[in-house]
Amino acid sequence: MFRQNQDMIRSNYICKSYDKSDKCEIEKQEINKEARTDFSSESQIIKTEKSRSIVENESQVNSETDKISQETIKENFPFPTFLEDQLEILTEIVDAIEEGYKYIILESGIGKSAIAATLANIYESSFILSDNKKLQEKYHEEYDLINNDKFHVSNHSDAFNEFEKLDKRKLLIVDDAHKFDENIADFFSYKIRLSAFDYELIDSFYCDVRDIENKEVDVGLDFINHLSLAGEKVNRVKYNIEENPDDWFCFHNEYMGYEKIIFKPLKLGNILKKYLLNKAEICIFMSSTILNKEIFADELGLDISEVKFIHKDFPFSSDTNQIYLRNCADMKNFKKVKLVIPFIEDILEKHKNEKGIIHTDKPEYTSCIENQINNPSFMFHIDDDDLKEFKNSSNSVLVSEDRVEGMDFPKDSCRFQIILRQHLIPYDEIAKYKDNESNWYSYKKAIYLVQLLQRAARSEDDGCITYILDERILTTIRKDIMYYHFIPDYILDSIEDMDVGGCELISDNVKKQLGVYYLFDYYSKNQKEDELSNKVLHYKSYGADKTDYTGQIDCSGGVINFGSDGQMLRKLCLDDDFDYFNNELMKAISVLSNQVIPNNISKLALVGVPSSTVERDAGATMRKSIKCIENWYDEGKTETDFGCKKEIINCGNLLTRISDVITSHLVDDSEPRPSYIEHKESIECLKSEILEKDDVAFIILDDISTRGTIMDACEDILIDNGANKENIYKFALFKTKWCNND
After folding, report:
1. pLDDT digits (tens, 9 = 90+) for 664-679
2. What CA–CA distances, in Å, run from 675 to 276, 333, 396, 480, 731?
């Protein structure tokens, strides 16, 4: 597992009936009138003696010196029961309001909508904003918050037009706040499509606009005026650029032959304060994926000293949720979907008696699934009625390009999910700029991934198995572990066969990284020259035939050159290099046997990773090493010389290559690495009773592991043929050094 499990939130329920006292309509109108018009620091909400006594009798907001009681919070909760953590969160928010905080950020997955509704009921003077109109309707339907002088529910974008007509209120509650910055930036963005204008009209400005430097908005403004563009949106953009030109980006974009000039706000602070945040005394931002409060606050232009941050762990248990990461294919192109169809079919067969979701992210990927898999359990997500039908169905699979944010699929409504493709926001000029400043793009990738993973796990005892097939997500997670640390521990703890970035020291010589035990770092290409890299190349060539290829092997700096006929040049290594690595390998196996593998395991089956081609696999050096270690065991040396008391079984030929693939650690940047599917389809497993033995541990052995893709494939092949996953270990002599540009 990645890291120590964090204390998960409690699920204790407190029961309290929801029974508001009847109010006199005239008295309510007087209270509400004063609440809307008086937000001074001296007054909590109500100032007059008459209204104060009424509020005290109703257990509502008390006098200036009294706090809102927990009894008041309970009475205003919209349901008869609630979680203890909801009460704690509401108490913290009320305390923060009374302490004078202007901004409150809540990171929690605990019934945020009900929390927002409770606050709206207590203060009776609030705006609530959701991500979109669909989630906006949820507040109307489930919480009976009808827009009036007490409540106003809208969404991130429509609020700009609606707020102009409304008076200031006590609270502004922004739900789905992880999308707030993107929605605001999109609302204020403006695009000029050059193809829509006569060439002669734009010709004089074309060169200046096409070659515009980022943030040179004055050239863009001149271009707007030159085209005589008008309208509400363009006028709003022009006004805000003229007010705060440093807050804006202007850049040229060309996609599929269409050219555009794009105006987009880089900094949102001035826009938000002018149009939204000034409409309320206190602003509350809620999301289950804040992930980094400093980046979040900076994006919205909030002064961090004025922010109260409240966090509750998401109810996601690694005991009941597992995440399987596989280097299946790079899903940037939908044509790659065909590579993972067999894997998806295997998952569907495994979960044929359960409900699940396939997240496709885009319509063309949904179409590929629909056209290539004939499965009667499929339901395709088009509208809300499809979601309702799916929730009411049994053993169906929802195929959806919608990210279903804000939707819950607890318990049996979703027991497995497949993430086919990574969701990415456009990597435009503004995204590049922000990413250089604060790793913003990596932050957003982490948010969207975590949002998906949260959809099907809504309580501590809830469970869902997630399969991630886009290898780009694996890269995202690995880089996050090593550099950014945005992804929460509860997610990392649920990922199978991966470790914290860097490596874990098992002993003074054995390390573990990303699920693979290994001895040495391998610096591919010309990253580093060392004798050890040369020695492993000698080892890989041990036992090769003596055919004189077209040239001599060049092992300097760990590089293998290729002859004109395209074959790998080999050179017979010295026996002492082979012996050296056999000794190191056996030492490491002994460490695994004594320190990692449980005592109830009495036998070690050594399984060689097949070479990348059928020809080389027939004489693979690792198989020779396994044979050597078997001989040592027969002679008693594995125990006397290396301290390994377990029986050694030679399973070097258990897995064999039946078709060729490219060698992973030697590919150029322009060449695709072999995918998980390619490896799995090109390796065959011999039938053997040993695969079903409970007292046998399988150690998959490789000389150089790059990203672990082939080892993942070998592991799953063994499992498919009867081996217990818990009894499988992966080991390599060398592991390719993970670099920022990998």
Report:
1. 555 554 456 677 788 8
2. 48, 14, 29, 22, 20
Both tokens assigned to 499? 């470790």
Helices (DSSP H) in 607-686: which residue ranges?
614-618, 621-634, 637-640, 676-681
Handedness of CA 89, 90, 93, 98 (dihedral sign): negative
Cα 330 to Cα 423: distance, rounded to the nearest angstrom: 13
| CB 86, CB 113: distance < 8 Å | no
**C-alpha closest to that of 300 among 189, 292, 451, 249:** 292
Q: Is 584 in contact with 636 (CB distance < 8 Å)? A: no
Instruction: Kindly write down the DSSP assignment for every residue of 167-205, as one continuous string.
Output: --EEEEEESSGGGHHHHHHHHH-EEEEGGGS-HHHHHHH
Could you give the 3-state DSSP secondary structure of residue 624?
helix
> Dmax over Cα atoms in the chain, in whole Å?
103
**Which residues, 6+ apart, have CB-to-CB distance to 66 below 8 Å?**
none
Does an H or E element contain 733, and which?
A: strand 728-736
Query: With contact defined as beta carbons under 8 Å apart, do 582 and 622 qualify?
Result: no
Find the helix or strand (DSSP H, E) in which 446 lies: helix 440-454
Lowest mean pLDDT among 59-63, 234-238, 482-486: 59-63
- The Cα 224–Cα 690 span in angstroms is 75
- Quickly tell me which residue has 């990596």 as its tokens: 442
d(CA 337, CA 431): 27
Question: 542 CB contacts (<8 Å, ≥6 apart)?
Answer: 572, 573, 577, 578, 621, 624
Residue type at 437 in one-letter notation = E
Burial class (CB in 10 A: 0-12, 13-18, 19+), 517: buried
Q: What is the DSSP string of 250-284?
A: EEEEEETTEEEEEEEES--HHHHHHHTGGGEEEEE
Contact 113, 157 (CB under 8 A): no
Beta-carbon contacts of 531 under 8 Å, excluding residues fewer than 6 positions away, are none
Neighbours of 423 (CB within 10 A): 19
Q: Residue 398 has which token pair?
A: 């929802």
- Cα-flanking dihedrals φ and ψ of residue 97, to 5°? -60, -45
CB within 8 Å of 593: residues ≥ 6 apart: 604, 644, 645, 646
d(CA 347, CA 720): 12
The residue type found at 561 is N
Neighbouring C-beta atoms of residue 370, cutoff 10 Å: 14
From the list 518, 505, 449, the residue with the least C-alpha distance to 479 is 449
Cα–Cα distance between 159 and 147 in angstroms, integer?
13
End-to-end Cα separation, the chain, in angstroms = 23
- pLDDT the model gives residue 47: 28
Question: What is the per-residue burial (b if ≥16 Cβ within 10 Å, else e) of 195-206?
Answer: eeeeeeebeebe
In 552-654, beta strands by DSSP E: 603-608, 647-651
Note the pLDDT tens digit of each residue in 13-45: 233 333 333 333 333 333 333 333 332 222 222
Is residue 149 within 8 A of residue 120, CB to CB? The reply is: no
Pairing mode of beta strands 465-470, 322-329: parallel
Higher pLDDT, 337 or 385: 337
CB atoms within 10 A of CB 42: 7
Give 618's DSSP letter. Answer: H
Render the burial of 609-626: b for 16+ CB within 10 Å, e for the rest.
bbbbbeebbeebbbbbbb
CB 217 within 8 A of CB 245: yes
Helices (H), 412-439: 429-438
Tokens of 517: 């035990």
Is 83 within 8 Å of 111 (Cβ atoms)?
A: yes
Distance CA 598, CA 281 (A): 60
The pTM is what? 0.66
